[in-house]
UniProtKB/TrEMBL annotation:
Protein name: Cytochrome c-550 PedF
Every Cytochrome c domain range: 54-136
Native source species: Veronia pacifica
SUPFAM superfamilies documented for this protein: Cytochrome c
Signal peptide feature range: 1-17
Pfam families: Cytochrome_CBB3
Iron recorded as keyword: yes
Gene Ontology terms, MF aspect: electron transfer activity; heme binding; metal ion binding
Length: 140
């Protein structure tokens, strides 16, 4: 019985690392609204207290719903996509992050990452960045 089940799994359609993912909307009404124009740097980086806790809660939830499938649970990459915990918490890291969430990633015509700005607002994406900074590690 177990062998038959295993064989059926092997004969099933292939599992794709970056298969179709439907981005999940995130309620950001409890954190400062940023408007339509994108900030060059993380506007939530210096926020403290209860508001910081709320930003990190939203960021963690948004990451888990929209990023973890490829970038790893709890921000720990399994090698499929870059480990976002290693992004510098400064302009250079923010610049790369904004470029990627706005433009996504395409290789040889295959979408490896969708344009996240088409699915998540600036507040959700900066909350994700803030959460990633809160768990950052130097693994180099």
């Amino acid at each position: 019985m177990a062998i038959a089940m295993f064989a059926s799994l092997l004969s099933a359609s292939p599992v794709l690392a970056h298969g179709d993912v439907t981005p999940q909307t995130i309620d950001t009404s409890s954190i400062p609204q940023l408007g339509a124009e994108w900030s060059d740097t993380n506007p939530y980086r210096e926020v403290k207290g209860d508001l910081r806790t709320e930003i990190l809660r939203i960021g963690s939830s948004a990451y888990g719903s929209n990023c973890a499938r490829c970038h790893g649970l709890e921000g720990i990459s399994g090698g499929i996509a870059p480990d976002l915990r290693t992004l510098a918490p400064d302009y250079d890291g923010d610049e790369w992050y904004v470029y990627r969430v706005k433009n996504g990633a395409v290789r040889n015509g295959a979408v490896y990452m969708p344009k996240m700005t088409e699915h998540l607002n600036q507040e959700a994406l900066w909350a994700i960045r803030s959460w990633l900074e809160s768990i950052a590690t130097d693994i180099n």
